[in-house]
Amino acid sequence: MRRVNRESILISIIFLIALLLRVWAADYDLPYIYHPDEPGYITISQNIFKTGDLNPHFFNYPSLFFYINALAYVPYYLFGKLVGVFHSPNDILPVTSLAMGVTQAPMPTTVLLGRAVTMCFGMGAVGLAYLIGKRITSRTAVGMLTALIMAISPAHVWHSRLITPDTFVMFFSLATLLAAILIYQQGKTWQYIVAGICVGLTASSKYNGGLIILLVLMAHLLRYGKAALKQPNLYLAVLFCGIGFFATTPYAILDSTKFLADLKFEAQHYASGHAGMDGNSLVWYLNYMWETGTGLYPLAVAGIVYGAIRHPKETVLLSIFPVAYFAFISNFIVRNDRTFLPLAAFLFVLAAWFLIELPDKFRTLQPESLRKPALAILAGLALVALAQPISKTIADARSLETVNSRETARVWIDNNLPPGAKVAIESYAPFVDPSRFAVQGFVRMIENAPEWYSEQGFDYLVFSQGIYGRFYREPERYHNEKSQYDALFEYFNPVMILTDGDYEIRILSIK
């Protein structure tokens, strides 16, 4: 009884840590939204709720994420109606977007609603990590440590605050792993059905998640060996993969033309490039792993090597997806942290297992005089491995609370530019009040030559480091783009340059 109570207390503490880290700064930019993707996802989910049209008319990502967020508007609306805020669904006001990453939310609670939904799935992933670590190793300590690593992971905490599908992918991929472990250990029919559904839901959160089917196939192969293809449950699982996907992304069939066009566009996008997020993918991902888990990921690799000797089948099951997925994403031109996220939890399990099991070997180390130093070194390594992620997670949260130039520039523009001035802004610029100024947004200001802005009657141009900075960071790679920005900066008259929070905004006027 005492052991159960201690376990419950420890996991409750871990959950509390996870929750506090994710809630911290979850409202960081409101009522403005500076994330490039959140506004579009909010709009799609609101439209589904308001109109009842289940076709998202957008298939760059599958539909499950949008359906879950649209469903969250039901209690939100009912509560608002109960207290007299809403009289019809159309009373839920849409966001106002001027350019990518330049958005205002007239009802910030709609943004908090979507972020809270993501947070729930992030917390669910921490719980699944605990169950997986405990189940596959039969050691509660491994589950606890895996959950703790997940709780403080910079990448996972960061994405748990955003209205994006990436945390959903991690949640359902972990659910698939848990079901695959049960298949490997027990092989019951219901486990194949659940595993197949979870694969479908993972792919229905984001297409690249479909690679998670490797887990089900590997679990089945490890259980039945050469007789694997003769077992009907394998085909039942594959069937339910399709059911899980098409039940939650039904317009892949019902609007197949649009679905295939958007899917092709997204595939070409990742294969062709995205300015500031392309090239040297393998090196970039290795650097990202070092920055977000300096000691953890090397421990995971060591865990794979060690586990291949001590627990070969379980290690293969844990490592097949992250190894295959890492090779898969490293071959794309486009690279980013959200693409990496799904494999992180698998590596956390491997690192935790290695850290928990290695002391058992050190306690029998010969000569005996080496045992205490070896254990001390291992303990120090574990502390360092955990200290780096938590310190980065805290630094990330503090950075969100730090006022940067997007906000100070917004206030400066509001107070200093003449009302009615015609203002051009580019992506990631401050929000310029369209009720006070004639505002036009551009993805990049270099879409047009300097003379064009004069001819069109613009008075001011607002440049953002979020766009032009990516070209100046890699001037050799983006020589043409840098030269075009140089021409714009030289042509117009600088009015104000703000650098608050290490984020630069340039406000220029027509000469």
What string gives the helices and strands in order?
HEHHEEHHHHHHHHHHHHHHHEEHEHHEE
Number of helices: 21
Work out the strand percent. Answer: 5-15%
User: What's the β-strand tally?
Assistant: 8
Q: Level of helix content?
A: 55-70%
**Approximate shape:** globular
- Largest beta-sheet characterization: 5 strands, mixed
Mean pLDDT: 93
Gyration radius (Cα, Å) is 25 Å
- Main-sheet strand order equals 5-4-6-8-7
Separation of termini?
78 Å
Which structural category fits the helices and strands? alpha/beta
What does this 3D model show about the protein?
- The protein is α/β, with parallel strands linked by helices and 511 residues long.
- Among the domains are: 166-401, no CATH class; 405-509, no CATH class.
- The protein is built from 21 helices and 8 strands.
- It has helices at residues 2-23, 38-51, 64-82, 108-137, 140-152, 154-159, 166-185, 189-205, 213-224, 232-248, 251-254, 256-272, 281-292, 296-310, 312-330, 337-362, 371-401, 405-416, 450-455, 465-473, 479-491; strands at 32-33, 96-99, 102-104, 422-426, 438-442, 460-464, 493-498, 505-509.
- The longest helix has 31 residues, at 371-401.
Topology of this protein?
Layout: H1 2-23, E1 32-33, H2 38-51, H3 64-82, E2 96-99, E3 102-104, H4 108-137, H5 140-152, H6 154-159, H7 166-185, H8 189-205, H9 213-224, H10 232-248, H11 251-254, H12 256-272, H13 281-292, H14 296-310, H15 312-330, H16 337-362, H17 371-401, H18 405-416, E4 422-426, E5 438-442, H19 450-455, E6 460-464, H20 465-473, H21 479-491, E7 493-498, E8 505-509
Parallel strand pairs: 4-5, 4-6
Antiparallel strand pairs: 1-3, 2-3, 6-8, 7-8
Helix pairs in contact: 1-4, 1-5, 2-3, 3-4, 4-5, 4-7, 4-16, 5-16, 7-8, 7-9, 7-16, 8-10, 9-15, 14-15, 14-16, 15-16, 16-17
